Amino acid sequence: MEQLKNFKDFIKKIENLRQASLILKWDMETCMPKNGAEANIAAITYLSNEAFKLSISDEMKNYLDELSKEQNFSKMDNIFKTMIIKEKKEFDKTKNVPLELATHMTEVCQRSQNTWFSAKPENNFNKMIPYFREIVMLAKEISRYKDPNKSAYDVLIDKFEQDMDTQSVEKLFSELKDGIVPLIEAISEKKQFDDSKFKGTFEKYRQKELSYYFMDVVGYDLNSGVLGEAQHPFAMGNSPFDVRITTNYHLDDVRPALFSILHECGHAIYEQNLSTNLVGTFLNRGTTMGMHESQSRFYENIIGRNKNFWVNHYDKLGQILPYFKSIPRDEFYRGVNKVEPSLVRIQADELTYNLHIIIRFELEKALFDGTLSVKDLPTAWHDKMKSYLGVEPTSHQCGVLQDVHWPSGLFGYFPSYALGNIYSGQFLMQIEKELGNFDELLINQKIPKITSWLTKNIHQYGKMKTPKEIIRDTCNSEIDVKPIIKYYTNKFTELYDL
Amino acid sequence: MEQLKNFKDFIKKIENLRQASLILKWDMETCMPKNGAEANIAAITYLSNEAFKLSISDEMKNYLDELSKEQNFSKMDNIFKTMIIKEKKEFDKTKNVPLELATHMTEVCQRSQNTWFSAKPENNFNKMIPYFREIVMLAKEISRYKDPNKSAYDVLIDKFEQDMDTQSVEKLFSELKDGIVPLIEAISEKKQFDDSKFKGTFEKYRQKELSYYFMDVVGYDLNSGVLGEAQHPFAMGNSPFDVRITTNYHLDDVRPALFSILHECGHAIYEQNLSTNLVGTFLNRGTTMGMHESQSRFYENIIGRNKNFWVNHYDKLGQILPYFKSIPRDEFYRGVNKVEPSLVRIQADELTYNLHIIIRFELEKALFDGTLSVKDLPTAWHDKMKSYLGVEPTSHQCGVLQDVHWPSGLFGYFPSYALGNIYSGQFLMQIEKELGNFDELLINQKIPKITSWLTKNIHQYGKMKTPKEIIRDTCNSEIDVKPIIKYYTNKFTELYDL
């Protein structure tokens, strides 16, 4: 069909612009010299703007209208049918956003993120205030254009987690909190593990060697991937053929790099296993950030922090870093599963991690409903950390400035992490039903089998299915907090003898 | 002036597209996973095409026409006057090239270069034949559109070395050959240095440390630069604020990385020292490839292979690689200046290097005047190597496939290297006139003073002046082979006791 062929050529242009923007962003975070920022930001802004212009152009509208007509629609394969339906929905939301507003937002976010690169090490929150203010203001404005009937924060949540809203997240998070707070309390009454011996001096090149080993163990394909270094670990892809990850090495502790590698591998494995039939469409990505996080946290925690995972790999750790030969495997296992309220999200344990997310969710909500102003963010952060986790940030660096998300304009993203935890519990339960006991799978080195299951049920679909559809088709269930709570309860009851 | 302001905004678009293409190319050579090539090539092709479309658009024509009118032209500063004159000339040449042809050329070159990445290690010339054929054919076609009155090879030479043509290059190269061949012959009758002890095992991280030391010594600014790794060392920039270099570490010999670093630093220092007033214009680059190579070879050879350079830095080599403590400085000096015909251009000594270039020049000329066909290139290469240098390639890898230039479509580029040598001799002579004895300058650690001289006379101008203008203004001379021959004669007469 001529019409479809032309449409494919048209979206290829948008894909080329997005590809270029993505590589420029990768470059900014992993390679670019300090003084190169201006030119890269200008180029990203320009390219994003051009892509946005195409995506809301009359040409796009015409294609969507034409291809939606029954005589054309019926001739397309399932992938393009889904793409047209989803893109039309997206187009109808986005077409009302003024171009200058979208461009301005892109530019502000790039500058803001670039400012954060220095503001964080300088512990300087004031530097970020004007950016946060402007981003919140612009995000509200854009949301109003996208859907005037919804609150701005609802629009933002839906952006990262399709078909979700503030109220549903609140309900799920409340159940999650009810499930984990008693566990955290019970643990706090037990004798705590001493993990002081995990601190030492671990040269970067050895940690790198370890990273390559574990990337291989979990099946991250380096023909379609690269490991880089960045201030904040992240994964980034635009097709199954090129999905990159970064980490950040702490020279005094191997755990942050090790588990961030497993985390980012989870993201990357998701996208490396997308069906190649989706290449050349906009469905060529993980379906939502929540589903993405379910995969990253599955590899990081459910696999990587499982006792039985280490049965096969602990010796390797000792080979690369002989220091660990003196630490028994069981002690290492406890050391990477110590539950203890702490300040930094990405270093938090599996349980308290959820509270870090709930705090951010509540702060974002308050910023957007106007009950919290940007300048009061550090105080509000401090108060919530104290009240939910019993710890008090000693600096902005390990407090409100710790994450790249807000500086990059990603408000509404954080809930995805805890939603991801919830989904991952459901997938674990289903895997055990279908493939048998999870501990056995790990002891018998069946990670490829687990990945195949995840690929068959989740990865391959990209954006063809929403999270709710995936969970329904895979687990025959609604989104359900109980499985992850059950997993937490079993794991930590055993670990801490609760 | 409104008109000029709009023109500046317009060329910013082109600069943004070029910036993005450049970073994508950097990514392809330094970072991208194997399977990412398709998407990056598609994006580079698209962006280059968009930039090209803008550069030959009616909008561009209107700006050039309008701003050339006396009432507007007189109001502009010198930089924009020069830019308009040069761009109009370029526009008049390029406007006739059909867009599809230019696009096709970009794409073929990207694919060709990407094929070379595997063809070289596989020693597979056949893989490159279709690409070389197509590139030569397309380059001829494009040249005909640009200037039907010139030979294709003349058009290509002029592209890299403004105001030069085949005949002038032939004349200069003939003088160069006449000057160096007797020196090479005289050296061949002398006792040769034994540099076998330079081979060893030199870990990459130590060679990296050495690289950073020498980048600092010559004044490469890492706030506006980055060192990466690539199969073929190169430098790359789009403004003084971001000029990157790569090297390739040989684990058995420190010399290739060390001197390629100095070479690429020469390129990078040139562009880091462009006047910032040129930012936002197309004059924001080194004026020609020949002038670029004059700078790279100045830092690599005239500075880096000078006996007195090592007076201050040889101890550092021994500190980082203790192996060198057992080698006296004088022996090291001889070891990095050994004149001996060899197979690989980038590892060739200062003298025979020129013959490598002359061979390539003659082969390119023959490819373009039709007296040599692509399939016969390896034989012709072999014959010329044997006749000019007395050595015979044992593989394509160290023969016709050794360089990235032809696979990237850069026919007409090679002469620049030897032209650069010629220019660098003229600059050396002038520096000695103005700043005093060069050996003394190096002993007294006056590299910053030398760089200031080069900046004042060359770097700052970017494309404001042609090479001929720079040489005229700086040395009060035409392009002249004699100074570099004099430098070679003095240096190697002393070194080999001729």
SSE order and pairing:
The structure is a homodimer of 498-residue chains.
Chain A (H helix, E strand, L loop, with lengths): L1 H29 L6 H19 L2 H11 L1 H4 L4 H17 L4 H24 L6 H18 L5 H9 L5 H23 L15 H15 L8 E3 L5 E3 L5 E5 L7 H18 L16 H15 L5 H12 L8 H7 L14 H20 L7 H13 L25 H21 L2 H6 L3 H11 L9 H9 L6 H15 L2
Parallel strand pairs in A: 1-3
Antiparallel strand pairs in A: 2-3
Helix pairs in contact in A: 1-2, 1-3, 2-6, 3-5, 6-7, 7-8, 9-15, 9-17, 9-21, 10-11, 11-12, 12-17, 15-16, 15-17, 17-21
Q: Helicity range of the residues of chain A?
A: 55-70%
Q: Which structural category do the helix and sheet elements of chain A fall into?
A: mainly alpha
What's the level 1 CATH class of the largest domain in chain A?
Answer: Mainly Alpha
Which regions of chain A have little confidence, pLDDT < 50, spanning 5+ residues? none
Order of strands in the sheet with most strands of chain A: 1-3-2
Largest sheet of chain A: 3 strands, mixed
CATH topology of the largest domain in chain A: Neurolysin, domain 3
Number of domain units of chain A: 2
Report the order of strands and helices of chain A: HHHHHHHHHHEEEHHHHHHHHHHH
Specify the CATH architecture of the largest domain in chain A: Orthogonal Bundle
- Indicate the radius of gyration of chain A in whole angstroms: 23 Å
Which shape of chain A, going by the Cα principal axes? globular
Mean pLDDT of chain A, to the nearest integer, reads 96
Number of E-state strands of chain A: 3
Number of helical elements of chain A: 21
The oligomeric status of these chains comes to: homodimer
Distance between the termini of chain A: 64 Å
Taken as a percent bin, the fraction of beta residues of chain A is under 5%
Largest interface: A-B, 38 and 38 residues
